């Protein structure tokens, strides 16, 4: 099964979000998630 590098994904997500001038809360709202979930993803500490 394919395993994604959580740290690389987090760095990518953070960079794209900042390029768009979005806050974690704004991105979370568009994805119907919590800003805490976005923060965990960006830090590479999500458990899924």
Radius of gyration: 11 Å
For the largest beta-sheet, the strand count, sense and barrel status come to: none
What overall form do the CA principal axes indicate? globular
Name the helix and strand elements from N-terminus to C-terminus, one letter apiece.
Answer: HHH
What is the helical fraction, as a range of percent?
55-70%
Question: Which regions are unreliable across 5 or more consecutive residues at pLDDT < 50?
Answer: none
Key phrases:
single chain; 48 residues; globular; 65% helix; mainly alpha
Protein model, in words:
The chain is mainly α and 48 residues long. 65% of the residues lie in helices and 0% in strands. The chain is built from three helices and no strands. The protein has helices spanning 6-19, 24-31, 35-43. α2 (24-31) crosses α3. The model has no long low-confidence stretch (mean pLDDT 93).
Summarize, please.
With 48 residues, this protein is mostly helical. It has helices spanning 6-19, 24-31, 35-43.
Architecture blueprint of SSEs:
Elements: H1 6-19, H2 24-31, H3 35-43
């Amino acid at each position: 099964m394919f395993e994604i590098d959580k740290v690389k994904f987090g760095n990518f997500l953070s960079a794209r979000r900042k390029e768009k001038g979005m806050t974690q809360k704004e991105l979370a709202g568009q994805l119907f998630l919590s800003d805490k979930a976005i923060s965990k993803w960006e830090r590479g500490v999500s458990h899924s």
